[in-house]
Amino acid sequence: MLEVRHLAFSYPGSQFSVEIEHLSLAAGESVALVGPSGCGKTTFLELIAGIRQMKSGSIQIDGVDLSDITNLESFRLNSIGLVFQEFELIPYLTVRENIELPYLIGGERQESGRANALAERLEITHLLKRLPRRISQGERQRVAICRALMAQPKLILADEPTGNLDPLRKKEVLSLLLEQSKQEKCAVIVVTHDSDVLEEFDRVITFADLSGKEAV
Ligand SMILES: Nc1ncnc2c1ncn2[C@@H]1O[C@H](COP(=O)(O)OP(=O)(O)O)[C@@H](O)[C@H]1O
Ligand SMILES: [Mg+2]
């Protein structure tokens, strides 16, 4: 489902660089990505999502090479579920509108049934009519996760998705993400610092191990 080879990237004017020799994820497989702050985990997820452009190397998602895609926004919307550290909720849209955003942008029929089911599972049904600023940080995180799951993506990239949650919710949010990956044959990469949730994943990869040698 995901195939990364010989990836190289650096920020303009910065000494920091990311080098990934090889990472391969099967459909339905889940990986926890760990490593110290500042080592490049977020940058790596942004490269996979096509938000940042790699200097060299190749990234394939579901057999499609990222560099061959002409409309990256549309591809990302339909194939990748993103949960980023800063949530990226739209402040002037309600929680429901934020969750249904992948459909609203894509101009497709609204999947209210799916939004309702996911909202119920994550216990945010009572928040659907509110604006993001009227809910707590942890609730925003769950809304962001709901949104990522909406489009039934091939790949989910989650950057510390449980960072703002209490221990009970952590497990719940992760099990929702991982259950989704198994049921819908969707590959998942989760960046996490929570050592108590690592056992839930098929594999745990240390970021430093991705450079210079085979990671699978
Ligand atoms: N837009 C940017 N421009 C220049 N350097 C950046 C930018 N974003 C992040 N960095 C630097 O890249 C390094 C890796 O950052 P990041 O990928 O966020 O690491 P992590 O997610 O593992 O904490 C850090 O040294 C950070 O300061
Ligand atoms: Mg980060």
Overall description:
The protein has helices at 41-48, 72-79, 95-99, 101-106, 112-121, 137-150, 167-183, and strands spanning 2-10, 17-25, 30-34, 56-61, 64-65, 80-83, 155-159, 187-191, 203-206. It is α/β, with parallel strands linked by helices. It has a single domain (2-210), classed as P-loop containing nucleotide triphosphate hydrolases (Rossmann fold, 3-Layer(aba) Sandwich). The strands form two sheets. A five-stranded parallel sheet has the order 6-7-8-3-9, sandwiched between helices. A four-stranded antiparallel sheet has the order 2-1-4-5, with helices on one face. The two termini are 14 Å apart. Bound molecules: adenosine-5'-diphosphate and magnesium ion. Magnesium ion binds at residues 41-42, 85, 159.
Topology:
Elements: E1 2-10, E2 17-25, E3 30-34, H1 41-48, E4 56-61, E5 64-65, H2 72-79, E6 80-83, H3 95-99, H4 101-106, H5 112-121, H6 137-150, E7 155-159, H7 167-183, E8 187-191, E9 203-206
Parallel strand pairs: 3-8, 3-9, 6-7, 7-8
Antiparallel strand pairs: 1-2, 1-4, 4-5
Helix pairs in contact: 5-6
The structure holds adenosine-5'-diphosphate (ADP) and magnesium ion.
